[in-house]
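User: Hi! I'm working on a homework problem where we have to compare a predicted structure to a textbook description. Could you give me the structure for the chain below?
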Amino acid sequence: MKQLFEFIPIILFFIAYKLYDIYIATEVVIVATVIQVAFTWFKHRKVETMQWITLALVIVFGGATIYLHDEQYLKWKFSIIEWLFGIAFLSSHFFGKKTFIERMMGENLSLPSKIWSRLNFSWASFFIAVGFINVYVMFNFSTDDWVTFKTFVAPGLMVVFMVVQMIVLYKYIPEAEE
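Assistant: Happy to help. Predicted structure tokens:
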């Protein structure tokens, strides 16, 4: 449910883009992201660091897109967010006792240290690769194609990646006791 909640601003962005244009859609995604973070704060009294960073980047790059009337700023925001996620995952190999992915999933899954490291590195690689794919799409395809990529293809890539991860990790899931 949490993942669906995080896609609401993206879905609203897509709808606004299809009904109006990239600039109205940018305004919608800024407002939706502010509301999303505010809701998270009031409900949990905590907002994750990456949500704050995402909010800041949406406001800065979205604001630049609207103010300068140049959609490239918004398009760059997606790559920067993906690269920041990738860097966060990579840096967790060097800081702290657990990798980023182990901190997120460690309570639900018991894996050897080597597997946690590989899993974390694969997530870092995934985020960095998606950031570069976004750059390719934004420079080689239309804005319509970019919006479709950001709204459907990139999340689809993540779903496929997660399914592959689950298949690989299946052998480490303990069997339920009878």
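For your comparison, note the following. The mean pLDDT is 91. Residues 126 and 158 are 8 Å apart (CA to CA). Good luck with the assignment!
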